User: What shape does this take?
Amino acid sequence: MRGRVQDARRRKIIGSAIVILLTMPFVAMQFTREVTWTASDFGAAAFLLALCALTYELFVRRIANRRTRGITITGLLGGLLVIWADGAVGVF
Assistant: This one.
């Protein structure tokens, strides 16, 4: 039972983080012309974040060793940042 409560709490935190991350550019668009996201930009960002969250959930459930899990999740977040930076400004 305790595992289900932790899983539900983790999902709420991840979902809240995704909403906050998607809200930030929306709010920035109200104050500056520097940020111009279209609906497809928000959709692509939501898809990328949701895919990353689902992959994170898979890693947390499948990898028991905390060190290996940490290294794998760090790689996942690094990959997310590389894809985000390339999509945003074409860094690579």
Summary: The chain has a mean pLDDT of 88. The chain has three helices and no strands. The two ends are 46 Å apart (CA to CA).
